[in-house]
Amino acid sequence: MDSRDYMTPTPGMAKDDDTVVTRISTVSEAQTFRVYRRRFFGLAQLVLLNIVVSWDWLTFSAVSKTASEYFRISEGAINWMSTAFLFAFCFASPIVIWTLNKGGPRSSIITASVLLLVGNWVRYAGTRAGNGNFGVAMLGQILIGFAQPFVLTAPTRYSDIWFTDHGRTSATAVASLANPFGGALGQLIGPLLATDPSQIPNLVLYVSIISSVACVPSFFVPARPPTPPSLASGTEKPPLLASLRELVTRTEFWLIFFPFSIYVGLFNSISSLLNQILYPHGFSETEAGITGALLIVVGLVSAGILSPIIDRLKHYLGTMKILIPILAATYIGFIFAPNSNSVAAPYVVAALLGAASFCILPVALEYLVELTYPMSPEIPSTICWTGGQIFGAAFILIENALKAGPKDNPPFHMTRALIFQAVIAAAVVPLPLCIGLFGTDIRKRRLEAECQRVRSEEEAIIRQS
């Protein structure tokens, strides 16, 4: 089905309307669907919040050695800033599902903004109090962690409410991938702003100001369009508990859940520990920051190229089956990159890893919505994101435990942690390859529902004529 076949402009179109789509649902009743330019305001705010919440997450990880000196604690304790952030995501997830399901994206966006405002300034107070109060800073970090799921899991729900099938994947990609872009900014800018321990409070201050400014537009985001953009968007969703009961019985959901969550977890862990992975081999915090930025920026560019193509072709499953083995191979390659004699190897491997990771992310999220339709999109996406945070926190703890000792060569290297990552990445490759086998359902239910309804309406028009 190509929505352009039935889009017709009308003289009464509102000033900010892009398109009016009219369908005949019965012989005597017309149903109108519109997409509004104002949808881009809410999308832009989701992008902005996902950028700042991820930047907040990696504020200390990007300068782990410097931060540990400022707070007079170990780097392992600094790692808990990332780990606690991820666990906070998990605790907030049930409330997030309920908020998105009952209140929609606007309620979720406002809740995230309030938590971000409070969390950032509590964290800044912790860095200023008594030459660094780690406990107060950790409290602020946890509050920011509570904020993240409210915006990270919202894109599929937002795109379902505001966009047609020709823009959903791109909208989901833009909003979802803004999150790691914020991480790239944190990895790149943090080491430049905090070159010695005394500059840590100013680093947190600058990030807090940026985050506060980014939160202000949230209170002006519209709740939902006056009319739905498509038939699927206007369909009444099943109750939350009924959807959850059905979801756990879907084999194809679990075949996506585990690779999605594990690869998100691996990405979270490598983003958090990248500085500690590279500096034992002679790389500086700045070079580690550039590696992290390449990991994310190349991924964003790649996803920006692929997402519009997927929007048109709808080849979700085939794309995943091609990219996931490539992604696993890049984790294997990362074992050898830090031991090279040049920074080029980490740069190249990180770029390839980012490209594969970011291209898979929006495709998997949109395919989940297709498989689980007519469930509300935030239900499977929130569960998958929560799994990613749980695995990410667990991987950070495991990899920190696998760090070499001071007498190893080089001291404190993380080769064992990289081997662990590669083994886990390779182990889950067969799961998505099994989708479509053994009786699993691979139908694109949302697209099929729209096509079926359009055919029914066309037949009604023909009978009337």
From TrEMBL:
Gene3D superfamilies reported for this sequence: MFS general substrate transporter like domains
Protein keywords: Membrane, Transmembrane, Transmembrane helix
GO molecular function, one term: transmembrane transporter activity
Keyword Ribonucleoprotein among UniProt keywords: no
Sequence intervals crossing the membrane: 40-58, 78-100, 132-152, 173-194, 200-221, 253-270, 290-310, 322-338, 344-369, 418-438
Subcellular location: Membrane
Cross-referenced InterPro entries: FLVCR1-2_SLC49-like (IPR049680), MFS (IPR011701), MFS_trans_sf (IPR036259)
GO cellular component: membrane
Major subcellular location class: membrane
Membrane topology note: Multi-pass membrane protein
Pfam families per UniProt: MFS_1
PANTHER family the record matches: MAJOR FACILITATOR SUPERFAMILY PROTEIN-RELATED (PTHR10924), SOLUTE CARRIER FAMILY 49 MEMBER A3 (PTHR10924:SF6)
Stated name of the protein: Major facilitator superfamily domain-containing protein 7-b
